[in-house]
Amino acid sequence: MPEKPIRLRDVVKFRECYFSVVSYFNDPVKCLLRYVPENLYRKVLKRKPEAEKVRGSYVKLDHDEALNFFMEHVKDGIFLLPPGDVEVFKPEILTPKLVERDNVLRKVYDLFSVPEGFKGVTGSRLIGLSSESSDVDFVVYGEWFEKARKELKEGLIRGKVEELEEDEWRKIYRKRRPAIDFDTFVTHEKRKYHRGFVGETYFDLLYVRDYSNLTIFSEFRGVKVGKILVEGLVENDSAVFDYPARYPMEEVKVLEFEPFELGTSDTSLEKVRITEVLSFTHTYVGQAFRGERIRAYGVLEVLEVDGKFVGKVIVGTRRVSDEYIVSMSLIE
Known about the structure:
Helices cover about 20% and strands about 35% of the residues. By secondary structure, it is an alpha+beta fold. Strands 1, 2, 3, 4, 5, 6, 7 and 8 form an 8-stranded antiparallel beta sheet that branches. The longest helix is centred in the middle third of the chain and has 15 residues.
């Protein structure tokens, strides 16, 4: 085990395979399988991998493919691995060495005047499995993230960072497959200041909590009771780029509610105080800010706390979904 805890966007290696960590609570380690040796790919899936997925002796997996491996460690689409059985790759520790031999990464690294130890690259570049076309998934930790966003915005204004052209926006839109139209998607994305090009290299700016705040929010484990459409005012935007992205709300109005077969009824819904929208998809991070009115469609989860029922709207419960968050203040 490393001296510091495993956290979101670290990469772990288990039985020669690489996994991306998707949680701040990692006992067991919650992660997704990303890369497996080609010989294991052929053995398990009984086919040759597509050429564009091959990274040296490894193969990059899509989500559905990954679920065919280590099935004894899969629960609800997430891999749960024993912390003592994994090797950990930490972006903030390894990146300073990586930039010495990766000129593309260095260009992104040098864009941000964030201290060493509070920024780094994750994904394929962290573990040496990137291709010539690989993006840079750049992580900034804690309070330094907002400084990095401001510097990215300044870089766009000064021409140090290039904006995405329409064809790039459409490429991202097709990849994300959001349940909102293209123009609405781009309108929200352009004010987030977390994407850009340096030369021909595309990069994402990703937020991760500082070690001192890893458990600032507890995991919410409510009962899924139905699909719901709500509107409300965003009270606080301090965690809208976190994972999950958090939109605490006031003045909440329920516009539609369709209970699951074993869920709650309209009568009991009146007893539920809906406090927050949570997004588990990167598509809807930074989607709205404090004081804005949002509309969100997702799954209502309810938890009884001290005799009262607290509800949260969960967006991103499935990989391809009709769920969404939009800022009505922005688009109306």
